[in-house]
């Protein structure tokens, strides 16, 4: 390999130190021994992407190859993640807790509600059982796909050899010092999963997996299915517990006295006392329904907030991590990003609508 093929100039991330010309030094009214010229010293480095040796100005730890486009950080070193095992155990614990909760909501809800719905008529009982089965299957299947499917590994690319790596093949690629392989600009390394993830949104400990290009759609479907299921559980729990709640004692409200605000306060206290007194007569099914309502209602609030956040990032054509790295950049908001994300085939039809005609950017996976 001759000198011209061994060395390539770089003009990306490294700038040479300024030099003082000879004519400028003559104009300085100082003794010659005090005149110092700043001279840029060339240093040789090797690009990890194509293997070519490069001439660099001094003082530049990060540089970009002028041939393949790879970005090299000379100050970075090989990293060893010693806590990967503990994070794996933590995530598996969260997954087990979430699975137990989902199964409890399904089984406990069916056990606590079926006497009420079947007491109305047989059709209501069959309808409730069918709806419960559909929600249970959709939630568990989407959860399984999200938790156990690969979040999306970056594509394998040729690197390290000049004849094989052509010009611009590794544009803006960096080197992952955990996986010891190239990392594309849309890829992030997850220390909990121990792998690089393409279009990584975030790492979710409750599914024990990252959310990336490979399972992002399943994660959104899991959120939608879980929200609809918890709303249905809340409605059925309230309906059933009202049917089996013991009647309130009417004599509690007979001896009310006072006027104005005092009367209202006394009435409120008597109602609360009567409700609490009647709870002692509730069966185990009644207490199970109360717990199901409180837990499902609190969970659905958090899931709704998370779903709205996710859909907004998709609408902007971003992920959560790209949103954090582009503070101040609102991006190109595009309703077609949502359609492409869910694989809607009729994008050309929606293009004729005014709300879709204004947008240009797409959410690419």
UniProtKB/TrEMBL annotation:
Record's bilayer topology term: Multi-pass membrane protein
Protein origin, superkingdom: Eukaryota
Documented EC number(s): 2.3.1.225
Any coiled-coil regions, as ranges: none
Location within or outside the cell: Endomembrane system
Domain notes: The DHHC domain is required for palmitoyltransferase activity.
PANTHER family, sorted: PALMITOYLTRANSFERASE ZDHHC16 (PTHR12246)
Protein name: S-acyltransferase
Organism: Cucumis sativus (Cucumber)
């Amino acid at each position: 390999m001759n000198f011209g093929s061994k060395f390539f100039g770089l003009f990306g991330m490294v700038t040479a130190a300024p030099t003082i010309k000879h004519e400028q030094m003559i104009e300085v009214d100082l003794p010659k021994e005090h005149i110092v010229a700043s001279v840029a010293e060339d240093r040789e480095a090797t690009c990890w992407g194509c293997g070519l040796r490069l001439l660099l100005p001094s003082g530049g730890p990060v540089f970009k190859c002028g041939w393949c486009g790879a970005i090299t950080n000379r100050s970075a070193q090989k990293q060893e993640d010693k806590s990967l095992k503990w994070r794996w155990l933590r995530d598996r614990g969260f997954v087990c807790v979430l699975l137990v909760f989902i199964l409890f909501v399904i089984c406990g809800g069916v056990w606590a509600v079926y006497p009420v719905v079947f007491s109305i008529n047989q059709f209501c009982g069959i309808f409730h059982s069918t709806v419960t089965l559909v929600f249970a299957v959709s939630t568990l299947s989407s959860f399984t796909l999200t938790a156990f499917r690969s979040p999306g590994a970056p594509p394998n690319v040729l690197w390290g050899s000049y004849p094989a790596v052509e010009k611009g093949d590794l544009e803006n690629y960096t080197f992952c010092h955990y996986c010891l392989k190239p990392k594309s600009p849309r890829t992030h390394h997850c220390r909990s999963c121990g792998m690089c993830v393409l279009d990584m949104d975030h790492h979710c400990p409750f599914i024990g997996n990252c959310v990336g290009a490979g399972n992002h759609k399943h994660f959104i479907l899991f959120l939608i299915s879980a929200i609809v299921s918890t709303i249905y559980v809340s409605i059925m729990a309230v309906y059933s517990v009202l049917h089996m709640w013991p009647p309130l004692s009417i004599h509690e409200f007979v001896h009310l006295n006072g006027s104005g605000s005092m009367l209202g306060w006394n009435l409120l206290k008597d109602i609360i006392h009567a409700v609490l007194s009647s709870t002692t007569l509730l069966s185990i099914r009644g207490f199970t329904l109360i717990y199901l309502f409180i837990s499902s209602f609190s969970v659905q609030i958090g899931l709704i907030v998370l779903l709205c956040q996710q859909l907004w990032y998709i609408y902007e054509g971003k992920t959560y991590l790209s949103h954090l790295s582009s503070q101040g950049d609102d991006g190109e908001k595009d309703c077609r990003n949502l359609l492409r994300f869910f694989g809607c085939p009729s994008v050309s039809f929606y293009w004729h609508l005014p709300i879709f005609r204004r947008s240009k950017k797409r959410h690419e996976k």
